[in-house]
Specification:
166 residues; Serine Threonine Protein Phosphatase 5, Tetratricopeptide repeat; single chain
């Protein structure tokens, strides 16, 4: 009736395990679970490894930005978020810790983070960032010469005569 071959049995046993492992070991997955668990040092290590191995991947770039932001380096984080905007257009991750109203793509997440930091990016559709050239540095203000201190008047050295009470 059924003819089982050892090769077929091996494929049926190994293939589901391989698919399960590949689904759980995607870029950002280990760090995602560490963030959910509240273990930022381990998440940072995972995100750094992902970025080192896949510097072009939008999730790896975004997660590095999130790591820098968590560590307080907002300028470096915003640089990474700007890069994630470029790379993450149309890329919809399976899971995210970003708010639902941020949008469905990595680019939307990165734009939301940039806007929370009061940063504009032309790739986010911020027309003011496209149309407005950077402001020139302010001109130095001319300082008026300080007024000299008023001269101290000499006090009288004579004592006025006493008045009689009567």
């Amino acid at each position: 009736m059924f003819n089982f071959s050892p090769r077929g049995a091996l494929i049926c046993a190994v293939l589901p395990i391989g698919l399960l492992a590949s689904g759980c070991s995607g870029i950002g997955q280990a760090g995602f679970h560490n963030v959910v668990a509240g273990n930022w040092p381990a998440a940072k290590e995972d995100f750094t490894e992902d970025y080192t191995n896949h510097p072009e991947h939008p999730i790896a770039v975004f997660n590095m930005g999130a790591t820098y932001h968590h560590d307080g380096d907002v300028d470096k984080a915003d640089t990474m978020f700007s890069e994630a905007v470029e790379r993450g257009k149309g890329y919809m991750p399976d899971k995210s810790l970003e708010p639902i109203d941020a949008g469905p793509t990595v680019a939307d997440y990165a734009c939301a983070r940039l806007h929370r930091d009061n940063r504009l990016d032309p790739n986010c559709g911020d027309r003011i960032a496209i149309e407005t050239p950077p402001a020139p540095p302010p001109a130095p203000v001319a300082q008026a010469a300080p007024e000299p201190a008023p001269a101290v008047e000499a006090e009288a050295t004579t004592v006025p005569p006493k008045q009689d009470r009567n």
